[in-house]
Amino acid sequence: xxxxxxxxxxxxxxxxxxxxxxxxxxxxxxxxxxxxxxxxxxxxxxxxxxxxxxxxxxxxxxxxxxxxxxxxxxxxxxxx
Amino acid sequence: xxxxxxxxxxxxxxxxxxxxxxxxxxxxxxxxxxxxxxxxxxxxxxxxxxxxxxxxxxxxxxxxxxxxxxxxxxxxxxxxxxxxxxxxxxxxxxxxxxxxxxxxxxxxxxxxxxxxxxxxxxxxxxxxxxxxxxxxxxxxxxxxxxxxxxxxxxxxxxxxxxxxxxxxxxxxxxxxxxxxxxxxxxxxxxxxxxxxxxxxxxxxxxxxxxxxxxxxxxxxxxxxxxxxxxxxxxxxxxxxxxxxxxxxxxxxxxxxxxxxxxxxxxxxxxxxxxxxxxxxxxxxxxxxxxxxxxxxxxxxxxxxxxxxxxxxxxxxxxxxxxxxxxxxxxxxxxxxxxxxxxxxxxxxxxxxxxxxxxxxxxxxxxxxxxxxxxx
Lengths: 80, 375
Fold this sequence. Notes:
heterodimer; A: alpha+beta; Eukaryotic RPB6 RNA polymerase subunit; 4 strands; B: alpha+beta; Gyrase A, domain 2; DNA polymerase, domain 1; 4-stranded antiparallel β-sheet; 16 helices; 45% helix
């Protein structure tokens, strides 16, 4: 459908796919498993744009009013 | 200050604080050791103001949002600007956001235009173009011809006859629309009686003709230096495809639609900004961190979850906690049928039976080390 790039929209933060090494590092840093991460469905337009696969972890760099910049992680799961 | 230390601090302090420190260093012309000292102090204050593990941030957020909400007006509408665009505000809007309603009561888009169209005429022309017109809005005269069971339509703008005929052909089965001179003539395949004929005529009238579906009205407004088009009705996907639109700034107030078109993270940002806007309109101040926590919870599983028995509260694992919230008997019956168990890990269920709640210091267990374990 879209011939515009949604990632350019002001309210869409930067999404990146983590490599498997980075993914391991994140999980180790917080001492959690993949299931405990916040989720993003594979039907999400940003996931489609990045062509991320299920179980990939996305690093989201949000612009934050309080912290300037904050980092959030979401794991790609199968959408309902 | 060495590079190494700088990197160290940049991991521990938020970017905004570091920027502010750098600004102070610049304006006061501090040297390296003074900067170190300043950073040390900033870090101390920052760590002191952090929440500790075990703090009940959820309950704090709930109270901080709910108390001001009790002050909100019950009156639902408010007219934005003099043009008279109806928007829901106050408590009803807040409920709408938190209940994750599929369709907001007053959907609206705020469209900004590219600099080439950012003028009074440009905005006006654009606004006229995007408003949805159905066939009935473009029609001058309609005749139902009973002799040969056909419908003749005369449009106001005769040049658009071909387009209309094509749309009618696509929209309704078993008919054939053709342009004949000034008219569009619609012929039916097979027998038809008057009743059906009238029904089909009404159907034809409701076919989408031009503009963008769902956009009922558009109002042009000047905001600072920009011309802004406000719409009644929302269709973000189609609007963003238009060439005139500044896609970076154009937003809708429909959270579900934003999630579908721009993704869950955009929806999260929209929840925050809409909630803050609703609160501020009423002169209520809520710290944005509470609302951030709330919207992170709403969007946790990748979709928009409502706060309430079907959403966040219903997703809790504890039977007693669910039963305590709403629909007690339903939950208890369901749990007994399915032989569910309760591990008493939440707050509600522990309050109910008088145990220490798992928050604050109660969240942590103490494991004693016996002398045998020394090695």
